[in-house]
Design brief:
alpha+beta, Alpha-Beta Plaits, 2 domains, elongated
């Protein structure tokens, strides 16, 4: 078997699918001349924002606080005690599973005072079955291509030598996970509160492209190089 011919191929699959979740990044800010007042106002605005998001129930898959800061803003000369104000910021990360409420949520968040919204960023879940489907199709493509090469040589496949994610068979130091193309996030939103509830913005989910590639080597029977050429070969100029 060590002298058996080897057929090396590459299989690839590219799938275009609808996103499964949308991520929003929200910054809630306050600025006051007094440190305690800035902190109290930040607590109030943060709670208001969280209450708004939680009111959407199961449409929200995950709600997280990414961090908090209270920063003194110094005057131009920066002498000790020359603090003109204190700025507070809370970072909130929101994962939305129900896109029917997304447009309304974005505009209502953007309507809150001193609140800045970036997103949505359309994504697939990390455990989405789409990734497995793409890998499976890439493997099927590799087998089909190797079988076609073998048939063209008058031989047949007899066994699999190696199947790996793209790059692992030629560069052991390179990571071999399938490649995924993640689309860019949409525009951000922000603004001061106005009277009444803002009209929901229409947001169209962005198509996600998932790509998987594998490399494979197969053993094959000895080719029949003496077989008559195919008619298509004889017609070549």
């Amino acid at each position: 078997m060590t002298d058996a011919p080897l057929i090396s191929v590459r299989g690839e699959a590219v799938l275009e699918v609808e996103p499964e979740i949308a991520r929003l990044h929200v910054h809630v800010q306050t600025q006051e001349s007094d440190r305690r007042k800035a902190l109290d106002r930040l607590v109030e605005r943060n709670q208001h924002c969280l209450d708004l998001v939680k009111s959407y129930g199961e449409a929200i898959e995950k709600l997280e606080t990414g961090g908090l800061s209270i920063t003194p803003l110094l005057k131009y000369r920066r002498r000790e005690g020359d603090i003109r104000a204190y700025q507070g910021t809370v970072w909130i990360k929101i994962t939305v599973a129900d896109f029917t409420v997304l447009g309304e949520l974005v505009t209502r968040l953007g309507d809150l005072e001193r609140t800045y919204v970036n997103g949505p960023s359309w994504e697939l879940r990390r455990d989405s079955p789409v990734y497995k489907d793409a890998a499976r199709q890439a493997a099927h493509e590799a087998v089909s291509r190797a079988r076609s090469y073998a048939e063209a040589l008058g031989s047949r496949l007899t066994g699999l030598v190696e199947l790996a994610d793209e790059g692992l068979t030629t560069d052991p130091g390179r990571g071999g996970a399938p490649e995924y193309a993640v689309m860019a996030a949409g525009p951000g939103f922000g603004g001061a509160a106005d009277a009444g509830t803002p009209e929901a913005i229409d947001l169209e989910p962005e198509t996600q492209t998932v790509r998987a590639a594998v490399e494979a080597r197969f053993r094959a029977t000895a080719p029949d190089l003496e077989a008559p050429a195919a008619a298509s070969d004889l017609e070549a100029p």
